[in-house]
Amino acid sequence: MQKKVDLNDLLHKYHLGTCNAEELALLESWYAQSIPSDHEIAEEELLQARSQVWQRLKSRLNFGRNILPLWTRISAAAILFLSFSVGILFYLKQDTGKIKNQTTNKFAKNDIPPGGNKAYLTLANGKRITLTDAGVGTLAEESGIEISKNAEGQIVYKIADQAGNTKGALMAMNSIETPKGGQYQVLLPDGTKVWLNAASRLTYPVSFASRNRTVELTGEAYFEVAKDATHPFKVKSSGQEVEVLGTHFNVNAYKDESVIRTSLMEGSVKVSSASGSANGIFLKPGQQSKVAGTGIQVENVGVDEVLDWKNGNFVFNDEDLRSILRKVARWYDVEIVYEVDPSEVSLLGIVSRSKNVSVILDAIEQTEQVHFKIEGRRIIVMK
What we know:
Blueprint (H helix, E strand, L loop, with lengths): L6 H10 L4 H8 L1 H4 L9 H19 L8 E6 L40 E2 L2 E3 L5 E3 L6 E6 L2 E5 L5 E5 L7 H5 L1 E6 L3 E6 L5 E4 L3 E6 L7 E12 L8 E5 L2 E5 L3 E6 L6 E7 L2 E5 L7 E3 L3 E6 L2 E6 L2 H4 L6 E8 H12 L2 E4 L6 E8 L4 H9 L5 E5 L2 E5 L1
């Protein structure tokens, strides 16, 4: 007979460190035990249940500042059968100052620290400024526009000479680029705020006066667009264009991703495929578009998952290992080398981006599906 368990009670006891061996075993297999062995479930039902599990875990553990990683393992292959395969589940308490060390010593010698605020600003005249090392204050002036770095490390544009804000300013283009292991914020000339994720590049005009507000993005960025009904704001990426008047949204347009994802948090945006329908589609808050070739798909998405990088976390909702490691490669500036195919591994969890790479690698190793070795700035995926 299957034993019924109170997940909330078990998680509470786990949090306090009072679970016995039997309770730990029950906790690690709680979902598998909740499905009768003779009950056949369609794949669609399993996918729906998996989503519900993720939402229940987030609500029960109240993901936020006090929780670092929570992980469960779900074998992708198990979806095709009768139940999930649930493995190691753990989390670290952060607020007491006594963080339980879950990482193994094997990564200590070659551990890699996280990324930080790093970027390069390229002016219209070709001058390249390293923003990481630049001090607070004015960085440059061109075409009547003053470019400065404020105390928060943000790049700010403002009109310094109204008379100079003429043809030269209208034609001048700047770009800000984050390397692997970098992120940065910029306040554009129209007041739009942009957060750039690692390995990203944003190209934009020095002045938006008397012209459409059009920028070009490679990589990932979150936009809080200043409202201007007479001048639409456009974000062009390889394969798509996003048009807005004033709203909050995220665009993921990395070249090594198979689709371009645009996620809307507030307002309304129009997403068009460069080679698809000229009419495009409009997103509602909480929706995400996926552009691949000429097609556009729309689905609902959680804000926590989309803006995890901006909020200082990695959040994985049934995400496959290759996708996770692409994010790891960008943030930790490493190369991923595969000696095995990790296609069977998918993960649920959250972990802080402020931690060394060993925290993520050790968490993934708890699945017992893959192991890792660090050699310089190369992470080797092994069986």
